[in-house]
Amino acid sequence: MKVLVTVKRVIDYNVKVRVKSDNTDVDLANVKMALNPFCEIAVEEAVRLKEAGTATEVVVVSIGPKACEEQIRTALALGVDRGIRIETEDSPESLNVAKLLAKVIEEEKPELIIMGKQAIDTDNNQTGQMLGALLDMPQGTFASEVQIDDGKVNVTREVDGGLQTVALNLPAIVTTDLRLNEPRYASLPNIMKAKRKPLDVKNPTDLGVELKAHTQLLKVTPPEERQAGIKVGSIDELVDKLKNEAKVL
Amino acid sequence: MAILVIAEHDNSTLKGATLNAVTAATRMGDDLHLLVAGADCGAVAEAAAKVACVSKVLVADNAAYEYQLAENISRLIAELGKNYSHVVSPATTNGKNFMPRVAALLDVAQLSDITAVDAADTFQRPIYAGNAIATVQSLDAIKVITVRGTAFDAAAAEGGSAAVEVVGSVHDAEISSFVGEEMAVSDRPELTAAKVVISGGRGMGNGENFELLERIADKLGAAVGASRAAVDAGFVPNDMQVGQTGKIVAPELYIAVGISGAIQHLAGMKDSKIIVAINKDEEAPIFSVADYGLVADLFDAVPELESKL
Ligand SMILES: Cc1cc2nc3c(=O)[nH]c(=O)nc-3n(C[C@H](O)[C@H](O)[C@H](O)COP(=O)(O)OP(=O)(O)OC[C@H]3O[C@@H](n4cnc5c(N)ncnc54)[C@H](O)[C@@H]3O)c2cc1C
Ligand SMILES: Nc1ncnc2c1ncn2[C@@H]1O[C@H](COP(=O)(O)O)[C@@H](O)[C@H]1O
Q1: Which of B109, B181, B301 sits opposite A165 (nearest CB)?
Q2: ipTM of predicted assembly, 2 dp
Q3: Distance of CA A118 from the midpoint of ligand 2 (Å)
Q4: Touching check for A120 and chain B: CB below 8 Å?
Q5: CB neighbours of B67 closer than 8 A, spacing ≥ 6?
Q6: Hey, which CATH number is domain A2-244, 3.40.50.300, 3.40.50.620, 3.30.40.10, 2.40.50.140?
């Protein structure tokens, strides 16, 4: 079967972002960018399905400016077959992303779509679910295990109380959680090979999608900073402080 | 127009997260309805009717809603939601699962995990693992919102007397089904609602050693949490993960043991009132947010702490 994965270019997870002094946004100038970690897990899962013979072709899609091709190439180096970038100025709002993806999926007709559960920049955790609604497809969100058999996919999900397993008719959408797999690193020969893999560019007009603004960002401010407190020298001192100073015991 | 709040429940009890969402909703408008969608969930509807500030409880009681499958329940909520100004749910894994589908069905955005209500259409929400706070205005006619529970006090669970109305519509998409679940059973308070949380990280070394933390938890009536590293290593189950992509907690007292303090972990606990860190590395970033830091080997410090409580 054909598998489609989505990848978002985001700030590297090790970077602590700063807010711009004019409070219009965060400062991304000269900040290291990377594949969203949850999308990395999505790519790994798709590549494993291909290695297992379950997937016949894996296609990766990213929406955004030219720079996103770096992340598409990373996915290609990890074993994805071909890439599609949808040209937009920035990464659009989630509902617009979902609408663009829905059009690509109507063309490509994959049987399984694997996405990250959350982009670590906006922390939205919503695009996969929105896509599910637009395409009327079932969803297995926050997946820690994915098993395909007989026209269905069983997805084990990380939920508040523990784990839940659902069975979904194919085609279906899966969004990844941290325990689904451990992504590999791309080898140098594969990075070289990825440069020659096909990468198509489309734009929203080709796809017949009109991007609509649903929200307006009014300002971005730094969170209240916590001050470091004191170091205590012993457990006795700690217990004393908690009882008599903080009064939490 | 009224506001529709989606109740979090397990078909027998109304979960506390609902009460925090109700408080958030009271800041958006004053006519609040609660939806209880489930199967054999009469007891939940009764509890929901007693919640302060709620004027009406809608009950959709049908097998199709038993496990709150997103494919089914999102259609129900979208159908009802058309007649509301706001549709609000706690940002639990249930809410996170079905609410974006509701938003897409209504062709509106979702504002995820809000922490403040500035106006009926303007909200604050953390982005970049809580390293920035975005103030966002919704341009949509219907606002679909999930609420971070720790940012709002719980509404009173008693004192209200809402009318209960039965909703007959049944939406069974028949594209997904429930197979099974493995739920943690614990006598301890829920992580997100506990007054004291003690969490262990990779430094705990293995799952058995978490007993050291459990003994303290028993004495303090605390919940036990963990870092991602401790969950990934298989020391403890996933539902214990605190952080950007796990649970958000803000107890009176948070004790971090053998946790380095990566930004993703801090994102889930830095709003705690008092933070204690026990770590053998005095350079560990956790000390930069801790009110009281103790540089020590946890295997000495934790048993001693237990003996002195
Ligand atoms: C996409 C993404 C999402 C993530 N989401 C989360 C999340 O939600 N929650 C989360 O926690 N992390 C999350 N992480 C992981 C995060 O980046 C860190 O890797 C993780 O928090 C580290 O866990 P730790 O502090 O237990 O381990 P480490 O960083 O390895 O720290 C272990 C600490 O234990 C101390 N120690 C060791 N032995 C002892 C001893 N005997 N006595 C005292 N101290 C000792 C060490 O000094 C060290 O500071 C996420 C990462 C990514 C990429
Ligand atoms: N601009 C984008 N391009 C490709 N995929 C995206 C984009 N934005 C979001 N996604 C996908 O949707 C997932 C969830 O994102 P979000 O709902 O924004 O947290 C991400 O992990 C990606 O897989």
Answers
A1: B181
A2: 0.98
A3: 7
A4: yes
A5: A164, A166, B178
A6: 3.40.50.620
